[in-house]
Amino acid sequence: MSERLFKCPLCKNGNILNHSLVKDYAVSQKEFTLCRCENCELLFTNPRPKEEEIGPFYDFKEYYSHEDKVQNFTQWVYQRIRNYSIQKKVTLIHKLSKGRTLLDYGCGTGEFLQEANKQKWIVQGIEPSEKARGQALAKLPNQIVTSLEELPTNETYDVITLFHVLEHIHKLRKTLKIIINRLKSNGYLIIAVPNPLSEDAKYYRNYWAGYDVPRHLYHFSKKSIAVLQEEFNLELAETKPMIFDSYYVSLLSENYRHPNQSQFSRYWKAFIQGFRSNRKALIPGDYSSNIFIFKKK
Known about the structure:
single chain, alpha/beta, Rossmann fold, four-stranded antiparallel beta sheet, 8 helices, globular
């Protein structure tokens, strides 16, 4: 079963138009329609699987964020980059906040929280996926829950992070309101999302792996982010690029576009396109994926 939206899930504007058809290359091989809000430029899957029925679309071996074990070379590369990125994320939250309470929404298998915990942060994670949550709980017993409703009552946090998570959340506005209410005064909300206007997105078009339908429900342009900031009374403190994402997304996109090409060819083309995408991204916000750092007013 699917649900159809008649208003933009971000700004609630009713002026929405069909934008494109994108195929789910990873699991179902079905096509999904992306709609575009004429007010805030948000792209969103419409119609989309209901929240309680989307689980099977996550059930594939290449969904590496829900898996600890290394099963192939691509996953080995992914985990090396992930480990580097984790160190950068912990460094970032150290610089932002003198407080030491952290909530990571969509914590996956828990490596980021584990490293922050080692560096004296009091951590809490939310992970809906049973498989990933089990692996996170093995690292941090009693510190991982399934949903916002299971968090300790009235607990607030100095930093709340959503790294490649916001695009997965069905109840977008409701969830953002709850998350922001959980921030301490002058706390920081860190959101990382793919960029549908990046150079690699333009190059691969409907083969662009960043669309990842139907798992990715939304695709935020810089204007969409600006509207989000205004809608939820946030201050945008900084925007940072995620430079490795262009290479990884290009690698997946190459596989979707030319599934029969050799591994060497796929890696080489992905490297070239990832490099080009980063080179053409002149300012933060133009990259394949970006980190938006908001401060609570």
